[in-house]
Amino acid sequence: MLPQSADALAGYGFVVALASEARTLCRRPPASGQTLTFGEGCRLAVSGMGGVRAAEAALRLVGEGCRGIVSWGTCGGLASGLMPGSLVVATEVLAVDGRRYRAGTLRPPGAHHGTILSVSEPVASVEEKALLAQQFGALAVDMESAALARTACECGVDFVVVRAVVDPAQEALPAVLARAVDGFGHVHALALLQGLGVNARRWRELWRLASHFRRARSALADLARTLPALSGSA
């Protein structure tokens, strides 16, 4: 059985890669390796980026009794019509090895519905985004949803994917992020400053990405406030 309405998410476990994304669900997210109860029997885990960490968090949530898994957070846009803050709800998740997982359905107003591709490394360049869009026909790309879908299927529970676009298809990710940000989103200030230097263009790119991230977080927070199962979040 797959959820068809917003209130059907009661009792689901939410896996979020970064604490900054988790704050769209609650004010004080749990530390890595811990979970937090919020809303109508929902639980939240902050996994860190990547499929391995996400799968571990999902197993923890299922072990605590969650009846489904939600992949919640941000993504990169592959389809040209998606802009920063656009919501994407997956109808299916596609792994780069070709495995496909049918996802549960939510119908929030204004959301885009289609395939989300999961990869193992950030997709940084405009050219790579275009290639993936052409090859896989996906709307957006992330690094966790395929692992979460696989874990949910193996555990016999449902899963849903809700993502908000940060970097659209026509914009590259600043190269400095690969050296300055770790798997939990922590910024190493010295590495960041060394990578940016006095290059005005790099500073503008980083400022623009930060603005996009705020828009994505706002879109997720706005959606969370409309979902009955998430009311009364901590």
What does this structure look like?
The chain is α/β, with parallel strands linked by helices and 234 residues long. It has a single domain (6-172, 219-230), classed as Nucleoside phosphorylase domain (Rossmann fold), CATH 3.40.50. The chain contains 7 helices and 9 strands. It has a 5-stranded mixed barrel, surrounded by 4 helices. The chain is globular.
Per-chain topology:
Elements (H helix, E strand, L loop, with lengths): L12 E4 L2 H4 L12 E4 L3 E5 L4 H13 L4 E10 L9 E9 L4 E3 L9 E7 L7 H11 L3 E3 L2 H11 L2 E10 L9 H4 L8 H8 L3 H27 L8
Helix pairs in contact: 2-4
List its traits.
234 residues, Rossmann fold, 5-stranded mixed beta barrel, globular
CATH topology: Rossmann fold
CATH class: Alpha Beta
Instruction: Please trace the helix and strand order, writing H or E for each element.
Output: EHEEHEEEEHEHEHHH
Please work out how many helical segments DSSP would assign. 7
What profile does the largest beta sheet have?
Answer: 5 strands, mixed, barrel
The end-to-end distance, rounded to whole angstroms, is: 28 Å
Q: How many structural domains does the protein architecture include?
A: 1
Architecture (CATH level 2) name: 3-Layer(aba) Sandwich
Shape: globular
Rg measurement, Å: 17 Å
Structure class: alpha/beta
Strand content: 15-25%
Strand order of the largest sheet: 4-8-7-5-9
The CATH superfamily is known as: Nucleoside phosphorylase domain
